[in-house]
Amino acid sequence: MKIYVIGIGLIGGSMALDIKKLYPEATVCGIDANEGHLQEAIALGVVDVAGKMEDLTTADFVIVSVPVDVAMVVLPAVLEAIGDDTIVFEVGSTKAPICEAVANHPRRRNFIATHPIAGTEFSGPSAAIHGLFQGKTNIICEVERTAFKLQEKALDLFKAIGMRIRYMDPKSHDKHIAYVSHLSHISSFMLGKTVINKEKHEQDIFDMAGSGFESTVRLAKSSPAMWTPIFKQNRKQVVKTLEEYISNLTQFKDLLINEDYAAIYEEMESVNRIKEILNGINIKK
Amino acid sequence: MKIYVIGIGLIGGSMALDIKKLYPEATVCGIDANEGHLQEAIALGVVDVAGKMEDLTTADFVIVSVPVDVAMVVLPAVLEAIGDDTIVFEVGSTKAPICEAVANHPRRRNFIATHPIAGTEFSGPSAAIHGLFQGKTNIICEVERTAFKLQEKALDLFKAIGMRIRYMDPKSHDKHIAYVSHLSHISSFMLGKTVINKEKHEQDIFDMAGSGFESTVRLAKSSPAMWTPIFKQNRKQVVKTLEEYISNLTQFKDLLINEDYAAIYEEMESVNRIKEILNGINIKK
């Protein structure tokens, strides 16, 4: 089995590690615009060798795991270069733009649009870890547009690395993910900004910030190179979630200004049911 | 040694567990307005026996760990009831109001104002855990207003359970803590609200929400009974942090509306230094 990983970071690299463990005979070839990352990935044993676009014709799987703006350019080129039995998937956090970009591509049936809901706030080959996808959800869009035999091939791989499969249309995916992922990142970045701007003496933060603060700003460590194009591609949905979030924060602030503590209590109590939702997430882990 | 814990929840209960481990000969007496919590605490072995306010005169330590509005009433009553060598401390998340409340109390020198920066999103006796305070910071306010011998007694205990001590005036504490704790809780509650309001079908959230979402909304599990009075007592500071947070979110939203992606990239990159700040927090853990 021959696997190509284009963009060897957290997601591509972690998939490479799981695949190498599952299929010891597989050769994992890495392609990365960043030569340093490529060499690091080989040195870390995340991939076996450096690959070339010209060789994609011999690939069984091609994993495109690059920032979503780069994927718009790379994916069509990859589809040009592959063989008839190659299945290509892309793992970005926006799905509608990429599905549109290849909608009329002659090789569309060799492509399966996916979004593995897995990751950490870290990036680059050194962020790759074994078992990242175990029990996580992989959202697949427009599955009917992928050749049936190649769907099976991809699904077998996703299941082998422990993923639950969910099917969704690209627009619904982008709308929902804005709420449960993209908004969380912005809330975290802006929370970090608010505190950093205020607390010029970081030692004060060291001393006073606890695990609660850490938890809410963890995502502010995320890569701007990865997230800027996600916000760009999902701009309308993200703006909408931000408007709703800002309006909820403003309403809470007004309740405080008006000292309506009964309403503040009720607000918090009604959100407490997030416990059950989070338990649902934990079960997947 | 005789210890009284008034309000046996996460903080008071966890302190009781550490004290019982450190000083097996100590008797830990529990007092709680909630009879069910008191019995649960005894059943769980968090405290040894039920205590009475009348017996506080024999106490070495009295830990007041109740919601901050209740503390305003309970603490003066406790100070009336204790003996000359009893040291009383209160562990709430606001410090100026409580310090003012007992500023002129004849027993002020038997009180030490503290805020252990430790906790989880859980509450009640069952939330009590061993070693919660290990490596955490305990902020002490107006230490000079506590009798020196009793300061020593309290500090020895705090150090014995693994805490780092920091001294701060109550107003500075309340101002800083609004940024690194109170704001995080509101951002989390309102993020949870925004998503719940949108995603009526929770299964969608189960399937699409990952560890990032979980991390940013974890604090939305927190107790409204504990947090409403904190927001009330620190209202002016919390409103100020909310105004700054909302303004940063609005500015980010406007950058998106105006498609200024270079500025969006810079915003995120400049906040990435939160990594070092969080590393500082981790070192404490």
From TrEMBL, chains A, B:
Keywords: Oxidoreductase
Single GO MF annotation: prephenate dehydrogenase (NADP+) activity
PANTHER family for this protein: PREPHENATE DEHYDROGENASE, PREPHENATE DEHYDROGENASE [NADP(+)]
UniProt-listed GO biological process terms: tyrosine biosynthetic process
Oxidoreductase is among the record's keywords: yes
Domain spans labelled Prephenate/arogenate dehydrogenase: 1-285
Transmembrane segments: none
Species, as recorded: Flavobacterium granuli
Domain of life from the UniProt record: Bacteria
Official protein name in the record: Prephenate dehydrogenase
